[in-house]
Amino acid sequence: MKRDLPDNRGEAVFEDFKAPYTHNQAIAEANRCLYCFDAPCIQACPTSIDIPKFIRRIANDNVKGSAKTIFDSNILGMSCARVCPVETLCVGDCVYNNMDMPAIQIGKLQRFATDAAFEKGWEFYEAGPDTGKKVVCVGGGPASLAAAHQLRRYGHQVTIIEKGTFLGGLNTTGIASYKMKADRSLSEVEWILSIGGIEIRSETSVPGSVSWSALADEFDAIFVGFGLGADSLLKLDGANAKGIEGAVAFIERMKLNEIDVSSIKHAVVIGGGNTALDAVRETKGLGIPNVTLAYRGGESQMSGYAHEWAEAKKEGVIPSWRSQPMGFRTHNGHVTGVEFQRMDENKKAIPGETLELPADLVLLAIGQGKLGELMNGVPGVTVEWGKIVTEEDGATGAPGIYAGGDCRNGGKEVVNAAAEGSAAGHGIHAFLQGGGTCQI
Amino acid sequence: MPNLTSNTAGIVSPNPFWLASAPPTNSGRQIMRAFEAGWGGAVWKTLGQPIQNVSSRFGGTHWRGERGVGFNNIELITDRSLDANFQEMAEVKRLFPNHAVISSLMVETREEWKEVVSRSIDAGADGIELNFGCPHGMCERGMGSAVGQEPKVNERITSWVKEFSTIPVLVKLTPNVGDIIPHGMAAQAGGADGVSLINTIKSIIGVNLETMVPQPVVGNRGSNGGYCGAAVRPIALHMLAALARHQDFKIPISGIGGVTNWRDAAEFIALGSSSVQVCTEVMLRGYRIVEDMIDGLSTFMSEHGYETLDDFIGRAIPAYSEWGQLNINFETVAKIDPEACIGCNRCMVACHDGAHQCIHPNTTGANAPVVDESECVGCNLCEIVCPVPECITMVEVNNGYPESTWNEHQQEGKPIRPKKGSHGYDMP
Which of B65, B340, B344 lies at the smallest CB-CB distance from A36? Predict the structure, then answer.
């Protein structure tokens, strides 16, 4: 597994959008918490962290207990503190919103407690006594990490298979850098792996390098935790020109490598989801002077979070609503502009109305491939719309094969992957306790 | 504009706000700055044989992020010479003739008392306050609260001072007693013109858990000190009211203990204070707090039609009853405003764990929990924990029972209403 990243990689220019709390700030904010009973914030958290409990522990200067409260529910508490869309989850449901007062900054408090645990080297968990059972987690992202940690606590031997070079999944390669940089994700991975006894097989793909049946032969249970596939691309005139690429691929390149955008004057990001919003804020943050978000619907039709778009607007991103790409202008094999068809409120083309925007970088944020198909042919596993169908605990229907994360939910938040991975860890343990073993 | 002029046992000041005898009145220069800020009077840092203080001296109670909700000190009386203090006192009176300067005194022998009383009068003091209250350091030397806790000693020293003094004499009482009444009576019997109360409460403010030393820490030890600040106000209000309503207690009272703003001061006045003394809040926020004390009290008096302090001094005393004289048939129940409720459920958990289990989840999915009025005892706990102003109110219930006190029930057999809140478990 690769651990080192270049210092001069593109994301190095970003500062934290939400600065960490100082000790005094954290105490002051923690003391504002009303310590609700049966709190709405807990219900809003996919991992059901006992938020009033961890906040009260910060207020009472028991930061160690606070961090443990968080990790007990979500071993990826450090990254979730930074990357969760708290405005639509816990913070959005804080009762202070009901009295028109500022909601508790739960994410920042969680970061305060979990970062303290990391910085001070507090260790909360140890592997359970060896059960002799072996489980493999396919994919090295948050879902697999959560499952693997849970399984180690139960004493099962765990192997993580990752097709790339780094663990952490999109936490490492895809999170907007003003929320979390790649090195912080890798340090969290190390922290999670410090429970010990987790074998890593990187640059190994399933079923490419290893078949499902080979895994079933070697292991007693399989957790499938891989994410989404490559960016969807457009089959339009000029789409192969230089300067046109998938947004996820661009973000990964920027996060892991040195990148030179000094010659780019106009960036156009196509899409209306959260990847598109990350891409416009990141290209703007890299210093590209003109950044346009081009979306075929209107502002209210975007699937991306309103709070993210509000920040993008403040940062100077220009929207081009109801604009459907029709083709690309190129010069000497490099993109120079994008031609759009104007759409009406129902996303239907308005005949004769077109628009052209100059562009020397075009990022396509119109979706990613679903990888559920990789499980086609595994008996007992159902794949619908590219997503693996499971029970609550991740059981697929094939004995001993569980799934969680983006391959199951179609692409949600890190916290959803953490919740599903952890649930599958419990499910797999119950399965193994019952004497089960996976078979294909 | 109401007249805030205050008269406590003949000590007149432009307003009822005095600095209590403490670090804010340590020197003439401080007191002159305080008078310029608006304070009506100042009780000088207690004078006596100069002492040597320790370092550190103060400790704070910090609670839910608020610093200094309570406060304690192990500082003693003045550590400066009597000559310097009396010289400065004369200077202050020369420059601020209309402000009240009260000389706080603590010495041992009759001769010493005679000397410091006489020198106070010579310096132009408007009154004398006898420090019979300090609960640390001085009491171990037979002064301060050691005097205040012994009514006979209190009365004897008070009578000495009255013998020597031509200006009003206040006796400052210690709260470190089981019942304040005999101590107030002793001062009155000794001839005091008034009393002031309370002094600080004997306390240990905390413990340093790393070093296992009580706070405030002096090297590798700590000692008990005197507790004060906002947290002690209810104790002070009770002792004030207990004396103020006593039929045989006739002399004026200067109230002290946790006064932080005009509202606190108004409560002291309503329970019988002719003036109020402030220390801790000044130590925490500075002399300037008096600006809003004056402004707020004036506004309050105007809005209520009080033209002078006399119009409301002791105004709440008639309603202060013994428990046995409360109307036991008066009944309230909690009402939760569903529009205002934010759904924190604090009332519910408080009622279930700390009261009578009569607030229940709302099964319709709405925010507001549901009050079981048939079991609600009207205790106020839910209203106290609710973070939304006016969301929970205690509403009177007409239960059909005529007014009856416990005493009347015991003595005359007047009927009392059935009990609530036990859910039938121990009902006859």
Answer: B344
